[in-house]
Amino acid sequence: MKHVIIGTAGHVDHGKTELVKALTGHDTDRLSEEKKRGISIVLGFAPIDLGTGIEAGVVDVPGHERFVKNMVSGAVGVDIALIVVAADEGVMPQTEEHFEVLRLLGVRSGVIALTKIDLVDGEIAGVVESEVTDLLDGTSLEGSPFVRTSVVTGEGIEELRSVLARTADETAGRSPGGFFRMPVDRVFTRTGIGTIVTGTTWSGRVSTSDELSLEPQGRRVRVREVQSFEHDIDESVSGMRTALALHGVKVEEVSTGNQLVEPDILPVSLMIDVRIEMSRLPGSRLKNRQRVRFHHAAAELLARAVLLDSEHLGPGDSGMVQLRLEKPAAAMGGDRFALRTYSPMRILAGGRILDPSAPKAKRFEDGRLALLAELDSGEPERMIAALAAGAGAVGIEPGRLAMYGLGKKAADDAAAALESSGRLVGDGERYYHGETVDLFEKRIFEVLEDFAGGNELVWGVDREELRALAGLSGRPLFDHLLEKGRVEERLFFKGGKVRVGSDELELAGETKILVESLDAFIAEAGWKFPMKADLLSLSAGDEKKMMNCIHILQDGGKIVRVGGDGWISAPALSEVTARVAVMIGEKGSMSVGEFKSELGLSRKYAVPLLEHLDISGCTRREGDTRVAGPQLKGDKG
User: Fold this and answer.
1) How many distinct structural domains can be found in the chain?
2) Structural domain boundaries enclosing 287
3) Rounded-to-integer distance, Cα 339 and Cα 151, Å
4) Is the dihedral of CA 101, 107, 112, 115 positive or negative?
5) Helical axes 93-104 vs 122-136, angle rounded to 10°
6) 95, 181, 323, 328: which could form a disulfide with 216 (CB 3.0–4.6 Å)?
7) Structural domain ending residue among the three candidates 170, 202, 226
8) What is the pLDDT of residues 381-402, one digit of tens each?
9) Helix (H, G, I), strand (E, B), or coil: what is residue 248?
10) Distance between CA atoms of residues 130 and 581, nearest Å
């Protein structure tokens, strides 16, 4: 089943509502004021029978200039325009303005209904059709079919229905996929049901019990019932007129222009970057920071238009603009919108949203304009590559691509193609531009190599210090690059430090000789470990150089620090531990004297060794004796 929405357009009193009534059997003027004055004030809705395989609804819009706001609200989301022109009056001011709204909103399918044909002869009708043809010339609605009609005589009504059916069949239907989204164009309450909202389902589908988010409030609600034109249905899909009864929100907490969406997808922002096209009507002019009325998804919001690539825009011009809204809006890339002047109110421009959650922009900034140009291309690969480049070392989460109007399959396919070409790098959670990855990978290696060149006795750079030196503080790319280096065996890790090249220090010359001398000296000393003063003679009194070499041996696990400034070889310490285990195992405890006697040590060596064993958990002091600590118990067990 294809679902389409047909929207009327045209000057006041040209017979839009009567024509809809003749086509549908429904009077869309439901307000008493509308019936009293004989003009439409608010949007009207009715189902229309276009034959098998098509489910269509008509949105009847007001034609009076005072209610253009409501007309624009109804025109957003229309699939087919039904442009109504009275044969006895021809093209009038609101005909032109309504047509500009449709053109600027990107409506590409239309049918022209010439009404009140019973009041004129064929020649006059032909002149009016010529006027309309001139109006459509050079636009996406050029070549739209004409049908002459009269609700008085019934002439052309069934022909119009057939033409609408054929146009609907030729119009691309909305994809049923994607997340659910519905702008609210009406809200009311009914006894026993509660809050009810209506709108046109823009994408996805919704069923009873689904949880949705009311935006921009961020209010979670649950669907109690789903209807379309007062008929209960199991679910609504994209392109359908939809009524939802909601649980979790009061009627006064919902406004026309709110949106119901699948939670946690649409961003809410006060700044939106767009490409606009100016109206072709005479006098259309936009200056920097001009206050405008932003019409989007059934909402009207006030905004300042900051021109990003021009000083001003005139009739038919186009350009990049940042809309700085006075109230937040929920939007996504690709959404169409219209702008009207603040006062007097007339159509000014329309366009397409590029970045629905934009940073505050500077005018004429080349980098930002280049990004917007890529987003404007509509090509997924170009868009994703540009977004990844703009995100730098922060990267962009795949789930955020939806906010730029990219469907999941299109985004996944484009990302896969970019990754295969090396232009994009993914770490499972984020995408980074290939050039960004190369830049920061090179920077990390430069930092490590520079450090190694000036610090040959230090094993590596502290991990967090490296993060800061590489300019990657708070950037997830850092962890990805370190893991990449580990897998490629180009980076090595030890004790919170990172090293490039190899896992071992590459010692040479005097440094190598000193390290080997210290290692041999400490090993030969055995349990009677040397102190710092004993070792200084090996480095000719150069304490700094000696301590750097000591740290190399410690990092390598060859020696262990004991007490304040003593070092024992690892094998000697292991033997001490083994002897203590045997002594405690035989008697259950060990005194300091027994320890000294067993190893032939003086108090100078025995006390620091016992304190080290206590600290390491091998022994535990109880008064003047030692018993097995957790580490020793584990060894025995």
Assistant:
1) 5
2) 268-368
3) 34
4) negative
5) 40
6) 328
7) 170
8) 999 999 999 999 999 999 999 9
9) coil
10) 108
